[in-house]
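Lecture notes, part 5. Sequence design as translation. It can be helpful to think of inverse folding as translation between two languages: the language of shapes and the language of residues. The source text, in structure tokens, appears below.
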């Protein structure tokens, strides 16, 4: 889906931002131990992939701003690891990335040392801890960061994020493919639902639909029946389906790009109250999507979203009439929108306004534990010159 010209053009955009007397170095993620000799599934750093297309751990991208030379540094050859995980040769890395030169680890280390001695500035990505969840970031960035003594360090995380935020035509095509596969999977699950008894059966059919077409999940699928629909990232999918609501929050991955879709459907008998919660979320989502115009202020968008959600929650009696907009977060403890792309939560570079070419989700939710009902409806939106385009519009919304 993506050839070296895509990655080369992305690098060029980034290189154009650098000042003289500097160099840039960006690292791939490293492989993480699960237990003993078992590693977690390897996930490449999104920025590194955007610049190189390489899917292996421990590679480095280096660019000398003053000579214009760019090169990759490859990890030390490890025949055991290669036998288990496969390997990437220098020639293959050149073909994928379009970077012409590859150094081995020893020559690469010597070069980095020399660049640190001779340059005023080094551009890289500073490690960024996760704020809301107690997770460790991949250690690769921290490890590299510690090696860069001498020059002033300049973080380009936000610059790369800003580039990534505006999707190119082939990126939009990849996202659309991921959405279409997700739609096909969901349709197949819906068709089988009357004969299913457990959440995991629905999850298995979805996985089968994706894998049969050669795709994977972009993230662990959420298939949550009844009260589990109130747990945002319910992943166990071990419970009986019952007769109430069933929430899917799912997405295929295509060419490294994600879909992220949420739907809630009835499993046979929903109450008027459940229908009212559903209608409130669907209504809110329509109003919120309409706000996503190019040039729209992000701050104003978030304020408008709060008013819309407040309106619906007050009408349902979930919040009192005296509630203020910020009170919506006592019920909806998740963001209304996030970027979508290489990462399911794709960085947007903290823009002040929405711009043409951005792809983001809109996913309002209202959660009522006493009704065993969490409703979240999520679509993937491309901002175009003429307004929001719902890339996932073909996936029906409707409780019944
Ligand atoms: Mn989402």
């Amino acid at each position: 889906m993506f050839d070296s010209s895509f990655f080369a053009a992305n690098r060029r955009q980034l290189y154009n931002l650098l000042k003289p007397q500097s160099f840039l170095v960006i690292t791939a993620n490293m492989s993480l131990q699960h237990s003993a000799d078992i590693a977690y599934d390897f996930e490449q750093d999104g920025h590194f992939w955007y610049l190189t297309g390489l899917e292996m751990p421990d590679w480095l991208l280096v660019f000398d701003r003053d000579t214009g030379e760019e090169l990759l540094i490859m990890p030390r050859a490890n025949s055991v690891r290669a036998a288990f995980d496969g390997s990437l040769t220098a020639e293959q890395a050149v073909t994928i990335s379009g970077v012409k030169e590859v150094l081995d680890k020893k020559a690469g280390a010597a070069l980095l040392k020399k660049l640190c001695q001779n340059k005023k500035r080094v551009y890289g990505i500073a490690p960024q801890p996760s704020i809301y969840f107690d997770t460790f970031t991949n250690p690769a960035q921290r490890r590299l960061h510690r090696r860069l003594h001498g020059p002033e360090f300049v973080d380009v995380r936000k610059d790369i994020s800003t580039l990534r935020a505006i999707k190119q035509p082939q990126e939009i095509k990849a996202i659309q493919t991921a959405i279409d596969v997700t739609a096909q999977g969901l349709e197949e699950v819906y068709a089988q639902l009357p004969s299913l008894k457990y959440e995991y059966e629905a999850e298995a059919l979805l996985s089968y639909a994706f894998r049969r077409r050669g795709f994977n999940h972009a993230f662990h699928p959420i298939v949550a029946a009844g009260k589990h629909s109130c747990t945002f990232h319910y992943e166990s999918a071990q419970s009986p389906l019952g007769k109430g609501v069933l929430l899917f929050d799912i997405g295929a991955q295509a060419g490294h790009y994600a879909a992220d879709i949420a739907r809630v459907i009835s499993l046979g008998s929903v109450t008027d109250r459940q229908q009212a919660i559903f209608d409130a979320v669907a209504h809110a989502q329509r109003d919120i999507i309409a706000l996503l115009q190019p040039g729209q202020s992000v701050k104003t968008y978030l304020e408008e979203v709060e008013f819309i959600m407040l309106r619906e929650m007050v009408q349902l009696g979930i919040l009192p009439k005296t509630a203020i907009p910020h009170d919506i977060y006592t019920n909806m403890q998740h963001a209304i929108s996030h970027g979508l792309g290489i990462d399911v939560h794709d960085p947007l570079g903290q823009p002040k306004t929405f711009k043409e070419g951005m792809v983001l989700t809109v996913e309002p939710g209202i959660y009522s534990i006493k009704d065993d009902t969490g409703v979240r409806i999520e679509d993937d939106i491309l901002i175009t010159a003429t307004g929001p385009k719902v890339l996932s519009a073909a996936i029906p919304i409707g409780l019944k």
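The translated text above is only one of many valid answers, since several sequences can fold into similar shapes. The chain has eleven helices and 19 strands.
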